[in-house]
Amino acid sequence: METVSLAHNLDRFPINVEKLALDTGSIFGWQDTVTEVRSADIKGFEGCLFPNENKTQWLILYNSKMKSNGRIRFTQAHELGHYLLHRQQKAFFECSNAADMYNVSKEDKDIEADADRFASYLLMPFDDYRKQIDSTINLDIFGSCADRYGVSLTATILRWLEYTEEKAVLIVSRNGFMNWAWSSTAAMKAGAFFRTKNNVIPIPPNSLTANELISQDRKGVDVIGKVWFQHAESKMTLREMKIQSEQFDSIITLLILPSVAEVWPAYA
């Protein structure tokens, strides 16, 4: 990416995924190149990667209905990941969001996970990303990262959850119920996670997230741990942050647990 940025006098961040995709074939000396990146009305999919009849040219499409520039950039990078990593494995790629991936094969899930990781690493390189995160975690810091890399707030938090040693849980909810949740490795080991697949999990009524009078709290407030995790110790508190996205009619919540917290149920 440094080569493309210097050659075209582009800013290092946010990465110009379209320019990178169009230049990738020539950079590697490949004959089958990406020749077009554009929006299209592809109902049911966020992005697609298609070859021409003799597989000498590839087309990257992203859904024209997507509202977020960050989501568009991530989708472009995801499809570029398929081109670089998987184009010898499948004839074409039609990619939905994570919520629609429950009923596909393990192979397809692995391929989609690979493309997501590629997009994340491309748009938010680890060495640069870690420099942006200081010791005090809050949604303002992640918001600054989202602006720097041209991605969504959710994407920047997920990137942090990949490597942090903090016990942290990200929750995206709508109308009082969880859409999905993701925990850091440390939080998973402590029992702090939610099984949202095929489950209807309500937002706890006493949580900051459920408080309709507060649309956002980027720094966070202390909340009794049992509000979110019934098996937490009675005196344990966690920090809860939230921001309401009117654009997507959803709430993003980030929970930070104490380093010593364990919320597994007690067994006799």
Can you walk me through this structure?
- This protein has eight helices and nine strands.
- By secondary structure, it is α+β, with helices and mostly antiparallel strands.
- It folds into two domains: 2-123, Arc Repressor Mutant, subunit A; 155-257, Beta-Lactamase, CATH 3.30.450.
- It has a five-stranded antiparallel sheet with strand order 6-5-9-8-7. A four-stranded mixed sheet has the order 1-3-2-4.
For the structure shown, list the relevant keywords.
single chain; 268 residues; alpha+beta; Arc Repressor Mutant, subunit A; Beta-Lactamase; 2 domains; five-stranded antiparallel beta sheet; 33% helix; elongated; disordered N terminus
